[in-house]
Amino acid sequence: MMLFKLHGIPPTIRLNVLFLFYSVTLSIELVLSVIFILHIVNPVKHIWTIGFPYLFILPGLTIISPIWGVVSTLLGSANMLKTYSSMNATMIVLNYPLTLLLLWFLKD
C-alpha cells in the first residue's frame, strides 16, 4: 500500500529539468575523468608530465569527486551533494586550469 500512496506533491517540470541537467553533467564528468585517466596511464611517461597536476596537486580529488557524486546521488544526501559541489568548484578553479596550462606548455 505504501508503494502506491503519493507522499507530497509530485515534482514540477522545472525540477525535472534541473535533475536532468544534474545527471547529464555528472555523466559527462565521469566519462571525461575516465578518458583523461586512460590518457595519463596509456604511455607511462605521461604520469609525471600531465598526470602530476591532474592527480597530485589536490591528491585524489579528481578521482574521489565523481565517485562521491554518484554515491551522493544514490543516497540522496544533501550534505554529500554540498561537499560534491565544493569539490567541483575547487577542481574548476585550481586543478583544471593548471592541467590545461601544462598540456598547452607540453603541446600534448
Distance between the termini: 59 Å
Biggest sheet architecture: none
* Rg value: 18 Å
Number of helices: 5
The average pLDDT score comes to: 79
Assign a percent range to the helix content.
over 70%
Low-confidence stretches: none
String of helices and strands: HHHHH
* Cα shape: elongated
Secondary structure tally: strands: 0
User: What count of domains describes the coordinates?
Assistant: 1
Helix-and-strand structural type: mainly alpha
The proportion of residues in beta strands is under 5%
Description:
- The protein contains five helices and no strands.
- The longest helix has 29 residues, at 13-41.
- The chain starts with 12 loop residues before the first helix and ends with a helix.
- The chain has 108 residues and is mainly α.
- The mean pLDDT is 79.
- It is elongated, with a radius of gyration of 18 Å.
- It has one domain.
Could you name the key traits of this structure?
mainly alpha; 108 residues; elongated
Please render the helix and strand layout as text.
Elements: H1 13-41, H2 46-49, H3 51-56, H4 61-75, H5 78-106
Helix pairs in contact: 1-4, 4-5
Question: What's a quick, concise take on this entry?
Answer:
By secondary structure, the protein is an all-alpha fold.
